[in-house]
Write a structure and sequence with these properties.
This protein has two domains: 13-79, PSPTO4464-like domains (Diphtheria Toxin Repressor, domain 2); 93-168, Orthogonal Bundle (Diphtheria Toxin Repressor, domain 2). The chain has eight helices and two strands, in the order E-E-H-H-H-H-H-H-H-H. Helix content is 73%, strand content 3%. The chain is elongated. Helix 1 packs across helix 4 (62-77) and helix 7 (132-148) packs antiparallel against helix 8. A hairpin with a 2-residue loop joins strand 1 and strand 2. It has 177 residues and is mainly α.
Length: 177
């Protein structure tokens, strides 16, 4: 039903499909405008589009910024954006992977603090390069801090140790339990 129709050798796209594509490109423009400067510089943008995005970033008035966003969206509709979309999606994918690793490390930290020695021995079996004595001490101190209601300084240090270990050799997946 939403498939393009071919009449007289001309590809006819429905109005709804054109609107969906326009909204998708407008969302891409919003991502470009709100993206950190360093990431924006790494994207394959031509000079006039980059200039319009920079101008939109500098606008503080809501209405003017919205109009400029529409201008950026219109410019995107008049271009081939395949490489740009791939680059933005690649950045988004990397961000999701970083967040997933962060949450995995947090889960290990929480499991070690709340759990028994079985979780610790499981971790030690699968990550041989970790400093056992420091790890045990940080777990013990984090449990004590949680019990006394103190700020979680040892838990932060434990997270940092686990993150450094994960960078060298990824932590094993958590088993349900």
């Amino acid at each position: 039903m939403n498939d393009p129709k071919i009449e007289n050798n001309v590809l006819e796209i429905s109005k709804s499909q054109r609107k969906r594509e326009a909204h998708e490109l407008l969302d891409l423009g919003k991502k470009l405008i709100t993206m950190p400067e360093a990431r924006l510089k790494s994207l394959p943008l031509d000079d006039d589009l980059r200039q319009e995005v920079e101008f939109a970033r500098s606008i503080r008035s809501h209405g003017a910024r919205k109009r400029q966003m529409m201008t950026v969206g219109k410019m995107l509709r008049n271009r081939d954006n395949e490489t740009l979309m791939d680059a933005v999606n690649n950045i988004d994918q990397k961000n999701r992977q970083v967040h997933a690793r962060f949450h995995h490390i947090e889960a290990w930290r929480d499991r070690l603090i709340e759990g028994s020695d079985q979780e610790l021995s499981e971790l030690l079996e699968q990550t041989p390069g970790i400093n056992v004595q420091t790890l045990r001490q940080l777990i013990r101190n984090a449990k004590k801090e949680a019990k006394l209601g103190k700020p979680p300084a040892a838990a932060r240090k434990l997270f940092k140790l686990l993150r450094e270990t994960d960078e060298q050799n990824p932590l094993p997946p958590l088993l349900a339990g």
